[in-house]
Specification:
Elements: H1 14-32, E1 35-36, E2 46-50, E3 55-58, E4 61-65, E5 73-77, E6 84-92, E7 99-108, E8 117-125, E9 136-139, E10 143-146, E11 164-171, E12 174-179, E13 182-188, E14 196-201, E15 212-221, E16 237-238, H2 246-251, E17 253-255, E18 265-267, E19 278-281, E20 284-287, E21 301-303, E22 310-318, E23 323-330, E24 343-348, E25 389-395, E26 400-405, E27 408-414, H3 418-425, E28 442-445, E29 452-461
Length: about 450
């Protein structure tokens, strides 16, 4: 034995083991360390931009006061942050306005007549009946990235008139949110790897002048970050084209279009992919411009596999006046001269294509169940022609079907139910036996003779 040292059977000294143990404890302590962003007494490290709503400190909280006649106001950190975990408590007076927390955001100093305009991702605080607290909005830029129609069970997480605990993880290209420890939103983005953190006082009408927003216990971690568990059953918005995240793979998603080839698709007319009328380039699959008629050029394409219950996501981009559609439960058993028969998520330029004015009560407009059910007519979920829109179709095992557009629920129905059959009976599909009630079918992208592009097509079997 070496004098003054005790060896275990592997030859390690107890002093070395003790050192390793202490280093492990030290690492755990570093990981658990929080740094305050607000000292509870002053606004040191923060500055006001945008509107003129005042921010003050009272009883250990930052208090923002809603002010009539001024645009959105923000109190932002002087420092910018990349990866972080942020926690804070927020209370909002009233239930007819909203607030939010800016993350990795930026300032256009010349906007608003020199007052500056904040833009970037925002975690929403929404006490209204809509109840989208914890959702992710892109302030002054892209609009909603994660409305809570995508996670309806989290709408009840917010407690009106009380302090609500908010947790935000911004690690790599992922942003996740929790409200009162309930997981809410999950976005994988392609922009903004760093920026400031900000607290919002929203612009308000006269009757809300003087209402207040309270922020306290604001703390951040920036080193040795550890991700908190997040349910794999909560829908994830991945804005990276044609690429599945590890979380999506673990949840069971598969790409139907890999951005490179047509390997999962074939023509409705043969087992091969159309020789003309379709183009794959730059991560996009596009219907080529022809004569604007149904399936007269390359023809429709369908998935090689068939699906029964599924969660289908896709992005699409319309050209002016264009028409297309995504159909589901397509069996190819019906004899048609034009496009194959199936339930259809309408993809259309509502303003310039005449089909939007046909049918009944707008049931041929964007995101509608074509010729059967009109989509939510709120114009806000619709992106301008020439921009990418995110479509989603969910069919649960009990045949409940939901259409989404850019994360907003557009319609819902029970496939095969009496109300559904009554609609079919007064539609163009009335002569097809048991229309839309097949046990399973292909997914179809329609060639309607107009230039329409698709990407990020993915599916999860339910």
């Amino acid at each position: 034995m070496v004098k003054g040292k005790f060896l275990n059977r592997e030859g390690y000294t107890l002093s070395v083991i003790a050192s390793v143990f202490l280093m492990t404890l030290s690492a755990d302590n570093v990981q658990a360390q929080w740094k305050p962003l607000f000292n509870g007494h002053t606004l040191a490290g923060w500055k006001t931009v945008g509107g003129q709503a005042p921010y003050n400190v009272k009883d250990g909280a930052i208090v923002g006061t809603m002010t009539k006649g001024t645009p959105n106001s923000f109190l932002i950190t002087e420092k910018e942050y990349g990866d972080f975990v942020l926690e804070l408590d927020i209370k909002l007076e009233g239930n007819s306005t909203n607030s939010g927390v800016q993350i990795r955001s930026h300032l256009d100093q010349d906007a608003n007549k020199g007052q500056g305009k904040v833009y970037g991702r925002q975690v929403e605080i929404d006490p209204t009946e809509r109840a989208w607290t914890g959702g992710i909005y892109d302030e002054a830029r892209r609009g909603w990235l994660y409305p809570l129609d995508l996670n309806e069970s989290a709408k009840s997480a917010y407690k009106p008139g009380e302090y609500n605990h908010v947790r935000i993880e911004a690690i790599g290209n992922e942003t996740k949110t929790w409200i009162n420890d309930i997981p809410v939103a999950y976005v994988i983005d392609t922009i903004d790897t760093e920026g400031f953190i900000g607290l919002q006082v929203h612009s308000v009408p006269v009757d809300l002048d003087g209402k207040q927003v309270f922020f306290k216990n604001i703390q951040i971690q920036t080193e040795n970050l550890k991700k908190k568990a997040f349910s794999k059953d909560i829908y994830l918005v991945n804005l990276t084209p044609n690429k599945l995240s590890e979380a999506e793979k673990a949840s069971g998603y598969q790409l139907l279009f890999n951005g490179k080839d047509n390997s999962n698709w074939r023509s409705t007319r043969s087992e091969a992919f159309p020789e003309k009328g379709w183009k794959i380039a730059d991560g996009v699959i596009s219907v080529q411009k022809a004569d604007g008629a149904e399936s007269t050029n390359g023809g429709d394409i369908i998935t090689k596999d068939q699906y029964q219950a599924f969660d289908l996501s896709f992005e699409f981009k319309l050209t002016p006046g264009a028409n297309s559609g995504v159909k589901y439960f397509v069996t190819l058993k019906e004899q048609t001269n034009g496009s194959a028969i199936g339930l259809e998520y309408q993809v259309l330029d509502d303003e310039k294509h005449p089909d939007a004015k046909l049918g009944r009560d707008g049931n041929r407009t964007l995101a509608s169940l074509y010729d059967l059910i009109t989509s939510n007519r709120d114009p806000r979920p619709r992106k301008p022609i020439g921009e990418w829109n995110r479509g989603r179709i969910v069919v649960t095992p009990d045949n409940r079907v939901t259409h989404y557009l850019n994360g907003v629920k557009m319609l819902e129905y029970q496939r095969g139910g009496q109300a559904f059959r009554d609609l079919v009976a007064i539609s163009k599909y009335k002569d097809w036996t048991a229309f839309g009630e097949a046990e399973k079918g292909h997914i179809l992208i329609q060639d309607h003779g107009d230039n329409v592009s698709y990407r990020n097509i993915k599916i999860k079997v339910l």
